[in-house]
């Protein structure tokens, strides 16, 4: 009888002991990690308040009819059905954007790698050249550079003036539907500074004794590049390719400024983001624009996932 009476009290003491141990452990963890959480607080507030929260709201709005003047009206998947079946401008915007991605990313990465290899030769004043070549990446996305680019490729611009000196009559690059998209590709390639810096850092990590051994074996410069530089640089190429592809899909400012926000001539510069902007702030179809935005997210995710899945066949790491 006495054992039965003591058992509940013992159980209570054990529970109190376990609770005290858990509380003490929590306090130690909090005291150890509290400064880190406090420093992360601004980022967490920005992530939940400015990134995740608006993204979830836009996902909801993509299933509604919303013009910012009245309350959102639920329409289900009607916006997505219209995009897939009854929106010719969506197809035009996708065609222009894919053309831009296919041409701008490879040319930019190739040019950036060539410049990085030239700078890797041990030039004097390397820091100065590196800063000069990186400058276009800082300025290229600005409105001022887009306006300057429009003036360069206008019918009476500097490019046609230079061609006229050698007897060539240049077209109106900006207003011709066959050439306008390639002026934006040229602007993108001009902003090669960011991938160039990353390529240069990757080239600096390749052991020089590998090149010396290849030279002793009689390997030419081209063979050294093909057999040594490219394989050891594939992780850097992969990183730059993924980043630059995502940035190309998100390009907006040059097309908006050069075309005056219309995507012309004949939708030849109608980037996907520009079309999204027109639907949201030109036609006030916020629900439809939200659906377009989420389709872009899915497209970028598919391209990124495909890049990672295929990287195992051509990206070589140290192991």
UniProtKB/TrEMBL annotation:
<feature type="transmembrane region" description="Helical">
    <location>
        <begin position="179"/>
        <end position="203"/>
    </location>
</feature>
<feature type="transmembrane region" description="Helical">
    <location>
        <begin position="289"/>
        <end position="309"/>
    </location>
</feature>
<dbReference type="Pfam" id="PF00528">
    <property type="entry name" value="BPD_transp_1"/>
</dbReference>
<dbReference type="InterPro" id="IPR051393">
    <property type="entry name" value="ABC_transporter_permease"/>
</dbReference>
<feature type="domain" description="ABC transmembrane type-1">
    <location>
        <begin position="94"/>
        <end position="307"/>
    </location>
</feature>
<feature type="transmembrane region" description="Helical">
    <location>
        <begin position="37"/>
        <end position="63"/>
    </location>
</feature>
<keyword id="KW-0813">Transport</keyword>
<keyword id="KW-1003">Cell membrane</keyword>
<keyword id="KW-1133">Transmembrane helix</keyword>
<keyword id="KW-0472">Membrane</keyword>
<keyword id="KW-0812">Transmembrane</keyword>
<feature type="transmembrane region" description="Helical">
    <location>
        <begin position="255"/>
        <end position="277"/>
    </location>
</feature>
<comment type="similarity">
    <text>Belongs to the binding-protein-dependent transport system permease family.</text>
</comment>
<feature type="transmembrane region" description="Helical">
    <location>
        <begin position="98"/>
        <end position="119"/>
    </location>
</feature>
<feature type="transmembrane region" description="Helical">
    <location>
        <begin position="131"/>
        <end position="149"/>
    </location>
</feature>
<feature type="transmembrane region" description="Helical">
    <location>
        <begin position="224"/>
        <end position="243"/>
    </location>
</feature>
<protein>
    <submittedName>
        <fullName>Sugar ABC transporter permease</fullName>
    </submittedName>
</protein>
<dbReference type="InterPro" id="IPR035906">
    <property type="entry name" value="MetI-like_sf"/>
</dbReference>
<dbReference type="InterPro" id="IPR000515">
    <property type="entry name" value="MetI-like"/>
</dbReference>
